[in-house]
Amino acid sequence: MMQIQGFEISVIEAKRFSKQGEKLNNIRVDHNSSVIQINKLPDGNAMVDFRFTTNYVGMGYIKIEGQLVLMGEVEPVIDEWTKTGSMPADVANLVHNTVVPNCIPTAMLVARDIRLPPPVPFPRINIQQQKKAGTASSGMEVA
């Protein structure tokens, strides 16, 4: 059974494009959680580098990057990541459902500080096991 240990944020980047007092109607807020890289650690666990982005279309963005440690039987996960750029659905759900709830509060504070709307409602993540086909993914992204 896989477990997450050692969640850490290492980068926070944010920008507001709109000027103070500028009114924008129907603001679209998109969330994206993606895994950048997975590496094996000397202790047999895996380091997962992630990026969480909240994009306020035409208004600004908040990008949060960090790492978490994946514990358990990591060899098959690393092998699949190396070959296909994706993870098994159950591991992807575990990783993304750890990243999103840990990054949203930070994104809310940053949004307040740079005067962007709060990034809510929270996105729900449920990655389905894809049918085996001849197409390879260039990376795991969840919108």
What does this structure look like?
With 143 residues, the chain is of the alpha+beta class. It has one domain (3-19, 26-118): Bacterial Protein-export protein SecB (Roll), CATH 3.10.420.10. The chain contains two helices and five strands. The chain has a five-stranded antiparallel beta sheet with strand order 1-4-3-2-5. The longest helix is centred in the C-terminal third of the chain and has 25 residues, at 89-113. It is elongated. The relative contact order is 0.24. Mean pLDDT is 86; it is low at 134-140.
Shape: elongated
- Unreliably modeled segments: 134-140
**CATH arch. level architecture:** Roll
Number of strands: 5
Summary keywords:
143 residues, alpha+beta, Bacterial Protein-export protein SecB, 5-stranded antiparallel β-sheet, 2 helices, elongated
